[in-house]
Fold this protein.
Amino acid sequence: MKPSVVATGAFAAREQFDAWCAWFQGVFAVQPNGQEAAGFLASSTTWTLDSALLCRVATPPIKVKRDSGMIRRDHLDHWNIAIGLGGAATGLESGPRNHTVPSGVPFIISLGNPLSSERAADERLQLYFSRDQFPSLNATLDMASGHPLNTPLGLLLADFMKLLERNLPEISAEDQPRLSEALRAMLAACIAPTGERLAEAQMLTRLTQMERIRVAVRQRMASSRLGPAMLCREVGISRSQLYRILESEGGVARYILQFRLNEAFARLSDTGVSCTIATIAAAHGFADASTFSRSFRREFGVTPTEVRAAVQSGVMVKPRAKPVFAADALTLQACLRGL
């Protein structure tokens, strides 16, 4: 898939704000929160799916309003789930509801209701879909409209939207119907969870949680305290959930070690990295270079020194492939259980 990109940078500074307003075509009334004469550098990257639009929008400080006159003229009553990404909170007014929504927390608005919002310069991810796409969710969405989804499942939905954006370039036209069903299941599970809906979205939930774990491990990779307790706090899951999710990866400790070693291998293979092996070891959470070297050799069959020497001589080293048995081969454990 390829997105549609709209950006005001191609216009003269005095024309940028008008160009941005023209892109909205009356859906929203936009007012800058700064000096319009200084220019208005903004952009929108829009992915068109079978059932929704996913947009990444970057703007300077801005006020946005949708009033009853606009609603009468365009008859749009689509849903919009938005997430601030740049650290700026959003001041949101929807009917009698007023909220200050922190960055990273999704919130739901309906284009069928008057609303206004105000925020500083930031980027945001916005998911638009019509009431006709997922009619079974409309009553639930009406109840949640105008409210921040500052719950564990709401934050999980935010992570799912970010993961979806990262993977859209690889989505084919044939995948789109399945993507629509996955989106419906995830919205239902996160906005109005029931046992049945959570079960339906279980695989998507696991993939999203795996992505959150991966990000947390990458961010805390250098910390000697990186372990189950830290990951549970960072990801917002229980210890039993964490162990269950990483069971197929060999467990929590194995996952962290393998992640650190793979990242270190990539650093050693980068000809632009000139820091010492001891520095790389410390940056990836190893107490000393000797421990790092032993773990590295067990994992890849070569030492960090050998990888660096090969790369410097123009030879790219590939990690040793792990032996894999045929798919129908039984493990010793399986054989013993069959006795």
Summary: The CA atoms of residues 9 and 241 lie 46 Å apart. The domain at 227-312 is CATH 1.10.10.60 (Arc Repressor Mutant, subunit A). The chain is about 45% helix and 15% strand.
